[in-house]
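Ops channel
N.P.: pipeline sanity check, posting one input/output pair.
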């Protein structure tokens, strides 16, 4: 091997090794430890006998684990669909409107993105207070003469998860807005000018030209949405606690994992084996759905 080739390989190793170490220590190692721990029975923090897939069987078929798990999955699916349909659609709309250079566009860019910078713990704590029966939201409704709309927003099973999702959308809608804005601004001007010369209207211009060309950005936002929706934890924890109250209506697989691994679903003692199984399921769901999303959206990409 020539000296220049050896030097080049050393430089590559120098820059790549820190990244590989981070991935190995913080992603691969916990993943394999979760897999390993899920194959054993546990008593508190003491690993006992090898049980194979028995923890997964308990998770999917044994009460109360299967009931709690599928209920949490339903809530995570609600988060995902709401985020995709509402948050990302609003982000696409806002990004498109801002790209049209509407009056005050620079101001709105900053206003949309400010909530993204807030700590999720601070956001959850403040909105938890705002949504109390005596909180800011109900007080404002009373002030404007809509006292009939006052609700215990986090205390009703039918309203708790939608309220959490609404707060999440308020916080995050600025991120896809700016991503889509950047993507739309990078659409080649010659394509738009040619469309205008052909007399194409705004609606057709968006769906036939702009939308296909920003699919790479849509792929990124979709994957991030999948990851975020399957890993919801901090906001639920700070706003409604770990018990999924009211009556498990706000439970997610993240809070269920925490409760199971560090304090059993019913007995109060840790179930590390089943908790590790839940952690592995979260990873597999995230990986598989993200991969499907990437393959599907990439098939729709348009090459210029």
């Amino acid at each position: 091997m020539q000296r220049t080739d050896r030097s080049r390989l050393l430089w590559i190793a120098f820059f790549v090794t820190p990244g590989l170490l981070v991935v190995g220590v913080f992603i691969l190692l916990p993943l394999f430890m979760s897999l390993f721990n899920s194959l054993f029975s546990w008593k508190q923090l003491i690993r006992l006998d090898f049980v194979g897939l028995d923890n997964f069987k308990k998770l999917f078929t044994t009460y109360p684990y299967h009931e709690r798990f599928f209920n949490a999955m339903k809530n995570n699916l609600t988060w995902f669909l709401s985020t995709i349909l509402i948050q990302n659609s609003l982000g696409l709309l806002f990004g498109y409107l801002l790209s049209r250079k509407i009056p005050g566009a620079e101001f709105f860019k900053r206003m949309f993105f400010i909530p993204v910078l807030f700590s999720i713990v601070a956001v959850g704590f403040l909105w938890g207070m705002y949504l109390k029966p005596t909180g800011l939201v109900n007080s404002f409704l009373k002030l404007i003469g809509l006292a009939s709309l006052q609700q215990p927003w986090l205390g009703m099973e039918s309203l708790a998860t939608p309220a959490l999702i609404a707060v999440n959308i308020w916080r995050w809608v600025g991120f896809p807005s700016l991503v889509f804005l950047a993507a739309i601004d990078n659409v080649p001007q010659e394509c738009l000018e040619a469309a205008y010369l052909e007399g194409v209207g705004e609606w057709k211009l968006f769906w036939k030209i702009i939308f296909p060309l920003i699919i790479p950005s849509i792929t990124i936002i979709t994957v991030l949405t999948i990851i975020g929706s399957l890993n919801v934890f901090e906001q639920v924890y700070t706003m409604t606690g770990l018990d999924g109250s009211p009556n498990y209506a706000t439970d997610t697989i993240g809070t269920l994992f925490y409760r199971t691994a560090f304090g059993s679903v019913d007995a109060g003692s840790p179930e590390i084996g089943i908790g590790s199984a839940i952690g592995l399921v979260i990873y597999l769901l995230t990986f598989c759905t993200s991969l499907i999303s990437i393959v599907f959206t990439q098939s729709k990409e348009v090459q210029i």
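N.P.: looks fine end to end. The two ends are 41 Å apart (CA to CA).
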